[in-house]
Input
Amino acid sequence: MKDVLQFMDNLAEFLGSSEGQTIEEIRAELCAEMGEAQFLEAERKFLAFIEEQKSKLKNTHASDCAVHNEPAYPNGPCNCGMTGE
Ligand SMILES: [Zn+2]
Output
């Protein structure tokens, strides 16, 4: 969670000072600043966090939640964080 907040801080900072830059340029700068592995991990967590918040707002489960496993697999208990935290 801490790295997600740091990622958001860095992102906000870059967005604030990056008029005219594309998102790809901003990503490259963040990547250089944080280190690629850490950046990609933080970005992944950030996007997962956003998805989780969106599904909570809509009061629905994430599209990859186990409650949507069928028909490929039996449905399982929620694992997206919408319920049962
Ligand atoms: Zn769920």
Summary: The chain has a mean pLDDT of 84. The pocket of zinc ion is lined by residues 61-62, 65, 67, 78, 80, 82 (CB under 6 Å).
